[in-house]
Amino acid sequence: MRKVTLTFDNGPTPSVTHRVLDVLDRHGISASFFVVGRKLADPAAREAAERVHAAGHWIGNHSFTHDTPLGRMADAAASVAEISRAQDALGALAHPRRFFRPFGGGGALGPHLLSRAAFEYLCAGRYTGVTRNAIPRNWEGDRGWTDRAVAQCMAQDRTLLVLHDLATGAMQYLDEFLSRLAGGGAEFVQDFPPDCMIIRDGLPAQGAERFVAD
Ligand SMILES: [Zn+2]
Fold this sequence. Notes:
By secondary structure, the chain is of the alpha/beta class. The protein has six helices and nine strands.
């Protein structure tokens, strides 16, 4: 049985997130949402995040501005503030395990994901750092991402898939995509695969250094 974990990054986007929640509810799937902290200043976005939380999905931190990858920020304190400000904005909506997903620009993984100061801050604050092993480029917005995502999910036993609840048009295909996966025998689970957690409750995983700039 292929297991698939769904994550939605860069929201909340009220017009899209509510639709994603409706689709997940229809399929009986629990997922995770990695939220950009500054977006919660918009009351409609906060309301969407509250609905995400109330529905039993997990909410993680995806930085405050999602501007410059933290490993490329010259100012160490500013890179730490990207994490702390977003966590403050999330407040009680954040999952107790303090999930944080770094961003790389175009989905690339590497030492640009985290500054040394941000990495140490995540460890000291007992965060759990979450990456992914499938990214079907759904920001391109067309239907093509669904074929890429189905292929990625079927090629491995355990997939952590990144989608985006952004207003690109891509999420109009979510329902059909989930039906295809379920029809192909995939099982949806909310937990993250161990090899996609670069820090677990503050403890760095083996190899976590490859995501840290020096
Ligand atoms: Zn992102």
